[in-house]
């Protein structure tokens, strides 16, 4: 099975292409608010994924060393999601709220899809 860092690197590559598509959609379609929300949400979502990967690596080291296990950063990731939604609410005329929430979930949906494809190929 791939390591967490390799999975995260693959996901980042996929997300960069998705972000590029969102930028093109923002620049060349009349749905700028929707694409702005998708961009903001996806950026905060990849930030949340980065926090999770970093905390999981610390968690693995703590378990291997037998030391006390700390939190996985759930509060920080939740606060990041709240910040993305707050930004969408604050700039409601420029950022679509629902697309921001959808953007927050894109990295996790990609992670799920990538893991399903991996298991179908290797089992």
From TrEMBL:
**Which UniProt keywords are given for this protein, alphabetically ordered?**
Cell membrane, Membrane, Transmembrane, Transmembrane helix
Q: How does it sit in the membrane?
A: Multi-pass membrane protein
Q: For this UniProt entry, which segments traverse the membrane?
A: 12-28, 34-53, 74-92, 98-118
The Gene Ontology CC terms held by the record are: plasma membrane
Subcellular location field = Cell membrane
Q: Which PANTHER family match?
A: ATP SYNTHASE PROTEIN I
Q: What is this protein called?
A: ATP synthase I chain
- Species assigned in the record: Planococcus massiliensis
């Amino acid at each position: 099975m791939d390591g967490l860092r390799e999975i995260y690197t693959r996901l980042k590559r996929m997300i960069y292409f998705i972000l590029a598509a969102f930028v093109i959609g923002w620049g060349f379609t009349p749905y700028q608010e929707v694409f702005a929300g998708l961009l903001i949400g996806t950026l905060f979502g990849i930030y949340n994924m980065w926090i999770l990967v970093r905390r999981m690596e610390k968690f693995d080291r703590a378990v291997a060393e037998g030391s006390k296990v700390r939190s996985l950063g759930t509060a920080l990731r939740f606060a990041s999601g709240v910040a993305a939604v707050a930004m969408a609410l604050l700039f409601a005329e420029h950022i679509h709220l629902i697309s921001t929430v959808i953007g927050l979930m894109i990295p996790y949906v990609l992670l799920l899809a990538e893991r399903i494809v991996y298991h179908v190929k290797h089992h």
